[in-house]
Amino acid sequence: MLEVVTYGNEILEQKAEPVTEFDEQLAETIAQMFEAMKRDHGIGLAAPQVALKKRLFITDVEGDKRRVFINPEIIMTSPELSEYEEGCLSFPGLYFVVKRPASVTIQAYNEKGKPFTLDADGLLARVIQHEYDHLEGKLFIDRIPPMRRERALLHYRRLVKM
Ligand SMILES: [Zn+2]
Question: Where are the domains of the chain?
């Protein structure tokens, strides 16, 4: 069973490595990631969040199908930005508004190794960017101004009594 790791685990701040084998083991990992995400009521989960240093994330956004993104590249972002309150399974209980491009175009492989391109906007675009950041070792607290970041971390440390 895969468990979600939380802030403080150094894998969350490391760059993940490309997936090279599209095999049974990968399919099993993906199935277990969906289970872990559901258990924690998430709408997106990246492999580093279950302590796997792989370029892979999944999404399950309301009104959309479940999606798997392997070795993804965000190839376009809209100049238009949007603000939305984000949470992260690796920071339980912490929510704050993050500004990001409103829409993105992403290229990735599915679990069978088939490449695809997707244009996303709304909540899906938001989740894609948040999860993609995890593959780069970047966290949502890195996306807000330093002052707000300090306050958010202080709040989080109090929440989890770190
Ligand atoms: Zn996250």
Answer: 10-160
Which contacts (CB < 8 Å, 24+ apart) does range 145-148 have? 148/96
* Spacing, Cα 6 to ligand 1 middle (Å): 9
For the structural domain made of 10-160, what CATH number should be given? 3.90.45.10
Quote the pLDDT of residue 160. Answer: 87
For residue range 23-65, list pLDDT tens digits in order: 999 999 999 999 999 999 999 999 999 999 999 999 999 999 9
CA of 127 to the centre of ligand 1 (A): 9
Indicate if 131 belongs to the active site: yes
Catalytic option among 35, 86, 131, 136: 131
Q: What is the pTM of this model?
A: 0.96
Gap between the Cα atoms of 87 and 97, Å rounded: 9
Distance CA 58, CA 131 (A): 8
Q: Which residues 6+ apart lie within 8 Å of 28 measured at CB?
A: none
Using 70 as the pLDDT threshold, list the residues of the chain that sit under it: 162
